[in-house]
C-alpha cells in the first residue's frame, strides 16, 4: 500500500507537481513519426503531462511542439494552416514558427514589431527512430538524446505502435514489471500467439508455474528476474529491466522479436502505452510485421481513425465468456495488450493504493515506487538529476537465459543485459 | 441480457468503491542474519509497527552459541534467546535481512523452518553498492535456496519502505 500523499506524488504529473517535475527531466515519446509524415502536413493535437500541445512539421521539415492555443483569443491552432514556414491561425492570421515565436500579426504594422512580443510555450521535438521525442523541462537542463536500442536500429528492424490506455500511467507501468501475473493472465498466449509460440523457453514456463523472483537495483532502475527450474538443476531466468520512470522491456522468446513499452502520462487519468518490437541483427519478416499490425503480440487493433483500441471499456473489451470457460483465454479478453489494459483500467482512472494488499512477490513494484519517491525527493530538495536521464542507463536489454544455480543473474548475464551492437539478444 | 447497475469503471463510478477494511493484519517477522543487518534491524525496530516484530540471529560467528538448539538461532532485539520454531510458526511472512558479502549460516536454519511451516520468505540484501560481484554472489548463494523473493538493495532504507508497503 501507499499513503494517499505518496500515491498523489507518483500519479500526478501535471505542471507544478513534484511527479510532473520528475517526468520533465526526461526525453519522452510524444508521437509516432508517421503521425507527421511530410512537410506542411496537418498538425496533430497532443496532450502530454496534462498540457495541451500541438505538433507540426513545417515547410523546411522542422518539427515543433507548441501550446495548442493562439495567443490572440485562444483558438485551437489545430485548425491552422501549415504554410510557408509556420502555422497560421485561421481566425485572424497570426502565424507561429516551430519554436512558438509569432512571425506575423497581420492587423498590426510590421514596423511596430508587435509580433516579436508574442511567443507561445514550446518544447523541442526530435526524431529518433520511429518516434518523435520531446523534453518538457527547463532548457538549461536539457539532457542528452535518448539511446534506447529499439529507436537506434535500422527502420526495417523495428515496429512501434501506441495505444490509448484509459488510466493513470503508474498502474499501467506497474503491470510491465509485475512478472508474476504472466503465468495467469497470459498463459494462453505462449502456445498460440505467432510472436511467442515455439520458443524453447516456453516449456520452462509451462513446466514450472511457481517462479521465484529476484529484484536488483541498477543505476537507472531495476532488473527483475523471474526464475524457473530448467534441466540438470539449472535455472531458467527471464530478466525484465525497468528504466526510470516508464520504460520496460519484456524478456525475449526464441528468435522472436524482443518487445517493450513506454508508459507516458497524457494526463492523470490517461496514458499512452507505447509498444515496440525489434531485432538488433535482422529486419523483421513480413509475417512478423503482419502479425503486429493485426494486433498480435503486445500490439492491438484500433477504432478506425485513432489510437483507441477496438476492444475498450465501452464494449467491455469484447470479453468472450465462452473462450474464458474453455481456457482459450484466461480472462476472456483476447490479446496480451488488452488483457493487461482491461484489468488495469478496471482499477479506476487512478487506483486507490491505500486499499491494496501487496504481497512478497510484489517487491518489484514496491522497489520501483521506492526508487521514484526517492528520486522525486532528491530532485525537489536538492535538485538531483534522477536516474534514467543519463543515456548510459538506456542501453539495457531484457534477457532469457539458463544459468547454473549458484550464479547471480545480474553478474552471469551482465553482457546479455547490456546493448551489444551487432549481437542478438540472449534468448532461449 | 445486460442487467448490471454499474458498468466499466469511470472516475465517477470509482467513488462508489466500498470504503471498508479488506484485510486483517499479517504477522511479519524480520530477522537480521548478520551483525551489519542487526544494526539496521534494531534501528528500524524502534519505530512503531502494526504487526512486524524484529529479531536477531544468534549465529553470526558461524555456529550457534552454547549447546545446539533451535532456540539458539534466534534472539529478540534485546538479545534474549527466542523460540525459533514458535516464532516462525506464528508468522505470515519472514523477512531475512543480510548485508552483502557474508554467507549467513542462519539462513538455512530459518529457511528450512519456514518451509516446514509453509511460511512465505523474503530475503533482503542491503548495502549492496560497493561490494564486489563475488561478495554479492556469495550472499545470494546462501539466501537463494530459502527465499521465495530475493531483493538486492543499494541502501538500507528499502527495508522500511517494503514493510510499509506490506502493511507491516
Question: What is the gist of this entry?
Answer:
The complex is a heterodimer of chains A (428) and B (168). Chain A is an alpha+beta fold and 428 residues long. Chain B starts with 10 loop residues before the first helix and ends with a helix.
Q: What does this entry look like structurally?
A:
The complex is a heterodimer of chains A (428) and B (168). Chain A is an alpha+beta fold. In chain A, 19% of the residues lie in helices and 25% in strands. Chain A contains ten helices and 19 strands. Chain A is globular and about 85 Å long. Chain B is α/β, with parallel strands linked by helices and 168 residues long. Helix content of chain B is 31%, strand content 19%. Chain B has six helices and six strands, in the order αβαββαβαβαβα. Chain B has a six-stranded mixed β-sheet, sandwiched between helices. In chain B, 43% of the residues are buried. The chains are: A alpha+beta (428), B alpha/beta (168). β13 of chain A pairs parallel with β6 of chain B, so a sheet runs across the interface.
Radius of gyration of chain A: 23 Å
Quote the average pLDDT of chain B: 88
Report the largest inter-chain contact. Answer: A-B, 39 and 37 residues
The number of helical runs of chain A is 10
Enumerate the spans of chain A where pLDDT stays under 50 for 5 or more consecutive residues: none
CA-CA gap between termini of chain B? 44 Å
What would the principal axes of the Cα set say about the shape of chain B?
elongated
| Secondary structure: number of strands of chain A | 19
**Number of helical stretches of at least 4 residues of chain B:** 6
Arithmetic mean pLDDT of chain A: 96
Strand content of chain B: 15-25%
- Helical content of chain A stands at 10-25%
Helix share bin of chain B: 25-40%
Lateral strand order in the biggest sheet of chain B: 3-2-1-4-5-6
Percentage of residues in strands of chain A = 15-25%
**Cα separation of the termini of chain A:** 35 Å
Rg of chain B, alpha carbons: 19 Å
Amino acid at each position: 500500500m501507499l499513503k494517499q500523499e505518496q500515491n498523489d506524488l507518483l500519479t500526478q504529473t501535471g505542471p507544478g507537481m513534484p511527479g510532473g517535475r520528475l517526468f520533465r527531466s526526461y526525453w519522452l515519446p510524444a508521437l509516432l513519426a508517421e503521425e507527421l509524415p511530410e512537410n506542411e502536413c496537418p498538425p496533430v493535437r497532443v496532450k502530454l503531462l496534462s498540457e495541451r500541445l500541438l505538433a507540426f512539421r513545417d515547410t523546411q521539415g522542422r518539427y515543433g511542439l507548441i501550446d495548442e492555443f493562439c495567443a490572440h483569443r485562444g483558438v485551437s491552432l489545430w485548425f491552422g494552416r501549415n504554410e510557408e514556414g509556420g502555422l497560421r491561425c485561421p481566425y485572424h492570421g497570426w502565424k507561429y514558427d516551430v519554436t512558438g515565436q509569432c512571425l506575423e500579426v497581420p492587423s498590426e504594422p510590421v514596423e511596430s514589431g508587435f509580433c516579436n512580443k508574442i511567443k507561445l510555450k514550446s518544447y523541442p521535438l526530435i526524431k529518433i527512430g520511429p518516434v518523435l521525442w520531446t523534453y518538457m523541462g527547463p532548457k538549461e537542463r536539457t539532457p542528452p538524446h535518448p539511446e534506447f536500442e529499439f529507436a537506434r536500429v535500422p527502420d526495417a528492424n523495428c515496429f512501434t505502435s501506441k495505444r490509448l490506455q484509459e488510466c493513470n500511467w503508474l498502474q499501467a507501468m506497474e503491470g510491465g514489471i509485475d512478472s508474476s501475473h504472466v503465468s495467469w493472465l497470459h498463459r494462453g498466449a505462449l502456445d498460440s500467439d505467432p510472436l511467442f509460440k515455439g520458443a524453447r523457453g516456453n516449456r520452462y514456463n509451462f513446466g514450472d508455474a511457481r517462479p521465484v523472483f529476484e529484484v536488483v537495483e541498477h543505476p537507472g532502475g531495476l532488473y527483475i528476474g523471474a526464475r524457473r527450474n530448467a534441466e540438470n538443476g539449472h535455472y531458467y531466468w527471464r530478466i525484465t529491466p525497468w528504466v526510470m520512470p516508464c520504460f520496460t522491456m519484456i524478456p525475449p522468446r526464441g528468435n522472436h522479436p524482443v518487445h517493450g513499452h513506454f508508459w507516458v502520462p497524457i494526463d492523470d487519468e490517461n496514458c499512452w502505452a507505447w509498444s515496440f518490437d525489434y531485432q538488433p541483427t535482422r529486419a523483421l519478416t513480413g509475417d512478423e510485421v503482419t502479425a503486429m499490425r493485426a494486433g498480435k503480440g503486445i500490439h492491438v487493433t484500433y477504432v478506425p481513425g485513432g489510437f483507441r483500441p477496438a476492444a475498450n471499456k465501452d464494449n467491455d473489451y469484447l470479453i468472450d465468456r465462452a473462450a474464458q470457460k474453455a481456457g482459450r483465454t484466461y480472462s476472456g479478453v483476447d490479446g496480451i495488450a488488452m488483457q493487461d489494459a482491461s484489468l488495469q483500467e478496471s482499477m479506476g482512472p487512478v487506483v486507490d493504493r491505500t486499499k491494496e494488499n501487496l504481497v512478497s512477490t510484489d517487491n518489484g513494484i514496491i522497489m520501483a515506487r521506492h526508487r521514484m519517491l526517492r528520486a522525486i525527493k532528491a530532485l525537489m530538495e536538492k535538485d538531483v538529476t534522477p536516474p534514467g536521464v543519463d543515456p548510459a542507463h538506456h542501453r539495457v536489454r531484457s534477457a532469457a537465459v539458463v544459468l547454473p544455480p549458484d550464479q547471480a543473474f545480474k553478474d552471469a548475464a551482465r553482457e546479455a543485459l547490456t546493448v551489444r551492437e551487432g549481437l542478438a539478444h540472449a534468448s532461449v | 441480457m445486460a442487467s448490471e447497475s454499474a458498468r466499466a469503471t469511470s472516475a465517477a463510478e470509482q467513488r462508489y468503491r466500498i470504503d471498508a477494511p479488506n484485510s486483517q493484519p499479517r504477522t511479519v517477522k524480520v530477522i537480521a542474519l548478520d551483525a551489519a543487518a542487526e544494526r539496521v534491524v534494531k534501528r528500524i525496530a524502534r519505530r512503531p509497527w502494526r504487526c512486524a516484530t524484529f529479531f536477531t540471529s544468534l549465529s553470526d560467528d558461524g555456529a550457534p552459541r552454547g549447546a545446539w538448539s533451535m532456540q539458539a538461532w534466534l534472539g529478540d532485539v534485546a538479545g534474549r534467546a527466542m523460540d525459533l520454531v514458535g516464532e516462525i510458526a506464528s508468522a505470515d511472512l519472514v523477512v531475512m535481512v543480510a548485508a552483502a558479502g557474508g554467507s549467513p549460516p542462519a539462513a538455512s536454519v530459518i529457511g528450512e523452518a519456514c518451509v516446514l511451516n509453509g511460511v512465505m520468505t523474503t530475503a533482503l540484501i542491503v548495502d549492496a553498492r560497493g561490494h564486489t560481484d563475488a561478495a554479492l554472489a556469495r550472499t545470494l548463494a546462501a539466501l537463494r535456496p530459502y527465499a521465495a523473493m530475493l531483493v538486492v538493495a543499494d541502501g538500507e532504507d528499502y527495508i522500511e519502505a517494503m514493510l510499509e508497503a506490506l502493511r507491516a
